């Protein structure tokens, strides 16, 4: 079976239990929950019994241990997660506003995550990989940008595949070198998984049709466009397949895109047909929003299959 690896932030998420604005007074919180977009993605892959691993850094603290224990228990290769005693594990505090938007306090770049970089364990993991998934959110520091570019090169050179979810926080695109790094990754990308407006983020064409044509002509084999509760579409040179979202009660949308992505990439790598892969991934995304906690939303194959049988 093909092995999927990813690179990037591991954090704990601590969330407000009530709606409101920001963190300027004492409020009830719940957490820590294991989190980080690349970590959620790879946990979903592992829960589908696909071989997989992550390159990351955590501190020598409970937040790091909680994440490693969880990933290990779900079957992720954690050999390239370095424990760095001088730094604390990354964290994100989140509070939902009445209108559904969120306020965050992040500690990622200054945490152990900022130390992501080369190591013998990292090389060994890349050597064992057939597919690299690049998560745009992981390109927050020079070390992880460099490592992601290097990994894309190594994995492509040995005939592997690169999948790319730009998963971008807008302010990141203006960091020095970020556009160039993203373009470089895109030039090596086989499967591109943007959400909504990210479709034309890295193209000259600014309309969807033009952006799709440009991406396909630049060597991207297939695009999976994520549109939240409006569903998702698969597009390649042969055409387009639309998959509506399943109707579910949304409890916590965080991590839906990552669970969806982990499920889609796994099916696609196994050679399953695009329509079936899209439906399976949409079920993973729908299940993710019904559970509170970012990584709590990942599902096992049997859960997804049961959900699909129920909805058939
Ligand atoms: P993220 O906020 O995690 O980065 P994303 O923008 O990458 O998310 P979304 O489009 O929000 O990804 O979600 C991915 C897929 O999950 C959707 O295409 C859809 O199939 C499913 N999904 C997301 N939200 C819902 C919802 N509220 N109800 C049902 N399905 C959903
Ligand atoms: Mg996303």
UniProtKB/TrEMBL annotation:
Keyword ATP-binding: yes
A Pfam family per the record: PfkB
Keywords in alphabetical order: ATP-binding, Kinase, Nucleotide-binding, Transferase
InterPro entries: Carboh/pur_kinase_PfkB_CS (IPR002173), PfkB_Carbo_kinase (IPR050306), PfkB_dom (IPR011611), Ribokinase-like (IPR029056)
Entry superkingdom: Bacteria
Gene3D superfamilies from the UniProt entry: 3.40.1190.20
GO molecular function terms attached to this record: ATP binding; kinase activity
Domain (Carbohydrate kinase PfkB): residue spans on this chain: 1-296
PANTHER family tied to this protein: HEXOKINASE FAMILY MEMBER, PSEUDOURIDINE KINASE-RELATED
Similarity field: Belongs to the carbohydrate kinase PfkB family.
Name this protein carries in UniProt: Sugar or nucleoside kinase, ribokinase family
Originating organism: Tropicimonas isoalkanivorans
């Amino acid at each position: 079976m093909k092995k999927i690896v990813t690179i990037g932030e591991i954090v704990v998420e601590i969330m407000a239990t009530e709606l409101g604005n920001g963190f300027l007074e004492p409020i009830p919180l719940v957490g820590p929950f294991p989190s980080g977009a690349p970590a959620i993605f790879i946990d979903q892959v592992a829960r589908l019994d696909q071989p997989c691993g992550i390159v990351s850094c955590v501190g020598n603290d409970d937040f790091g241990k909680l994440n490693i224990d969880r990933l290990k228990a779900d079957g992720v290769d954690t050999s390239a997660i370095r424990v760095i005693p001088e730094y604390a594990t990354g964290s994100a505090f989140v509070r939902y506003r009445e209108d559904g938007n969120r306020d965050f306090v992040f500690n990622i770049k200054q945490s152990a995550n900022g130390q992501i970089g080369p190591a013998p364990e990292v090389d060994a993991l890349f050597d064992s990989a057939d597919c690299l998934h690049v998560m745009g959110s992981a390109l927050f520091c020079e070390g992880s940008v460099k490592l992601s570019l290097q990994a894309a090169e190594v994995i492509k050179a040995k005939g592997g595949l690169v999948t790319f979810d730009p998963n971008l926080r807008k302010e990141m695109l203006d960091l020095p070198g970020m556009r160039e790094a993203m373009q470089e990754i895109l030039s090596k990308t086989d499967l591109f998984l943007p959400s909504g407006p990210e479709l034309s983020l890295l193209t000259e064409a600014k309309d969807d049709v033009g952006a799709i044509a440009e991406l396909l002509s630049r060597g991207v084999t297939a695009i999976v466009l994520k549109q939240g509760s409006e569903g998702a579409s698969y597009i390649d040179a042969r055409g387009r397949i639309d998959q509506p979202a399943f109707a579910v009660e949304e409890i916590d949308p965080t991590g839906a895109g990552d669970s969806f992505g982990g499920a889609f990439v796994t099916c696609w790598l196994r050679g399953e047909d695009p329509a079936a892969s899209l439906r399976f991934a949409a079920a993973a995304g729908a299940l993710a929003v019904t559970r509170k906690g970012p990584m709590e939303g990942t599902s096992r194959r049997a859960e997804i299959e049961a959900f699909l049988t129920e909805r058939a």
